[in-house]
Write a structure and sequence with these properties.
The protein has 185 residues and is of the alpha+beta class. The protein has 4 helices and 5 strands. The chain has 2 domains: 123 residues, 2-Layer Sandwich (Alpha-Beta Plaits), CATH 3.30.70; 36 residues, no CATH class. The protein is 30% helix and 16% strand. α2 packs across α3. The chain is globular and about 45 Å long.
C-alpha cells in the first residue's frame, strides 16, 4: 500500500480575480479576513458598501480580453515549468482564473508568484497595459486538495463548469478517465 504524505497536499486549487471586479457589498457576496471561516456568514449585499469600495479603487476594473487571457495562461504554464510545479488544469476567464496544480510552496505563495508573473507577461506583451498598476484583487483562494480522489472532480469544475471555454489548459489524461461517480461541487 502506498504511503500518503499527510504534511503536503497532493494539489492546490487556486483562484484569483481581476482588479475591482468583485467588491465587498456586491450581490454575489464576498469574504474578508473576518468573514473567511468555514460556516460563518459572508459579507451581505450592500449597495452603499459597494459604492464606497468602488470610489476607493485606484483604477478602473480590469477585464481581460481574449489576448490578455491567452497571455495569462501562457504565463501560468511558463511559471509552473520554471518552478517545476505540476500543472493539472488552468482556466483563465475575463475576470478571474482557476488553477489546479501541485507545488512545493504553500498555496498562497504559489498564487502570489503566479499573479506576479502574469502581471509581468501582460505588461511585456500588451503595450496598452504598461502604465497600469493594478491587475488583480488582493488575495484570492488557495484551497488544499488533500486526497487524490478530489483532484479530478476539481479539474472537472475548472474545465467544464465555468461556462464558455476561454483560455484553457488541462492534462490530456483528463479526457481518458471515467467521470461516473465523481463527487461534484
Amino acid at each position: 500500500m502506498k504511503k500518503i504524505n499527510i504534511d503536503t497536499p497532493c494539489a492546490y486549487f487556486l483562484t484569483f480575480r481581476t482588479y475591482a471586479t468583485w467588491l465587498h457589498g456586491d450581490t454575489r457576496l464576498s469574504v474578508d479576513p473576518e468573514h473567511n471561516v468555514y460556516g460563518t456568514p459572508r459579507i451581505k449585499e450592500n449597495p452603499n458598501l459597494e459604492k464606497v469600495m468602488r470610489s476607493e479603487c485606484l483604477e478602473d476594473k480590469f477585464i481581460m480580453n481574449a489576448k490578455h487571457r491567452k497571455t495569462v495562461l501562457e504565463s501560468i504554464i511558463d511559471t509552473c515549468e520554471y518552478n517545476h510545479w505540476h500543472l493539472h488544469a488552468a482556466h483563465v476567464r475575463s475576470n478571474h482564473a482557476h488553477i489546479v496544480l501541485r507545488s512545493d510552496m504553500a498555496g498562497k505563495l504559489t498564487r502570489t508568484r503566479i499573479k506576479i508573473y502574469a502581471t509581468k507577461f501582460l505588461k511585456r506583451d500588451h503595450s496598452e497595459l504598461t502604465q497600469r498598476k493594478n491587475f488583480w484583487s488582493e488575495g484570492g483562494s488557495a484551497k488544499e486538495i488533500w486526497r487524490p480522489e478530489f483532484l479530478f472532480p476539481t479539474m472537472h469544475y475548472v474545465i467544464e463548469e465555468q461556462g464558455e471555454k476561454m483560455a484553457l489548459y488541462y492534462e490530456k489524461e483528463y479526457d481518458e478517465i471515467d467521470r461516473s461517480g465523481f463527487f461534484m461541487f
